[in-house]
Specification:
Radius of gyration: 16 Å
CATH superfamily: Aldolase class I
Number of strands: 8
Organism: Actinokineospora alba
GO biological process, one term: L-tryptophan biosynthetic process
Keywords: Amino-acid biosynthesis, Aromatic amino acid biosynthesis, Decarboxylase, Lyase, Tryptophan biosynthesis
Strand content: 15-25%
Bound molecules: indole-3-glycerol phosphate
Order of helices and strands: HEHEHEHEHEHEHEHEHH
CATH class: Alpha Beta
Structural class: alpha/beta
CATH architecture: Alpha-Beta Barrel
Largest sheet: 8 strands, parallel, barrel
EC number: 4.1.1.48
Distance between the termini: 29 Å
CATH topology: TIM Barrel
Number of helices: 10
Helix content: 40-55%
InterPro entries: Aldolase_TIM, Indole-3-glycerol_P_synth, Indole-3-glycerol_P_synth_dom, RibuloseP-bd_barrel
Length: about 230
Amino acid sequence: MSAFINALTTGAFPVIAELKPRSAAGEELVGTRAPADIARAYLDAGAACLSVVTGRWFGGDPAMLAEITRLSPVPVLRKDFLTRDKQLVASLELGASAVLLTATLLPAAVLATLVGRALALGLTPFVEVVDEAEIERVPNAADCVIAVNNKDIRDRERGPADLGRSTRLLSPALARGTRCPVSASGIETPEQAARLIDAGYAGVLVGTGLLRAHSPAHWFADLAAARKERL
Ligand SMILES: O=P(O)(O)OC[C@@H](O)[C@@H](O)c1c[nH]c2ccccc12
């Protein structure tokens, strides 16, 4: 099992905590804070994995990824619209353990090639999907994270999130063979995260919700409390 999937499925909190300088709509999320300080706060709170957005739309850059992977003892996902083999090699050199592959943007043959290349490099493919047809196109699903994106990247994620999409697509994702279904985007509250994890998601990816929270530690404590309440 890959280090990324192992960390997510065995950690105290099955949360991939994301660093994203700003939203696609241009809202500042990191502001004057140092990204390294935010990453340390995520780690102290108990995040199983980190995610760093390197795409320019979101104010990110590869140097920030390198800075975070240097300090992080947990696996780090590189979030960007990766389309080429050499970007996978660069991600590995920057210290990433997992790479985003966006099914919506990649023709089936290209997705298959990139998943194969990522696995050959020892990177965990984090394949983002928005519908059943895309799930059907995920190759080697047993070795991939299948991440259901609750927002739509076709409108640059400006529209509202539909967490119901995660509810609808959990069974098809598991049927495809992934051991690690993840719900991503638009998860604002610990209660929403608790509901998705208790429904059967191996993890949730949270950016904006954690970046806006006063304290990641409180957000995680509230997640633990919400899960207990639901037992
Ligand atoms: O901030 P949110 O709503 O919690 O979403 C995080 C993450 O899913 C989102 O940043 C994202 C989803 N797909 C992407 C592709 C590239 C960059 C970023 C993303």
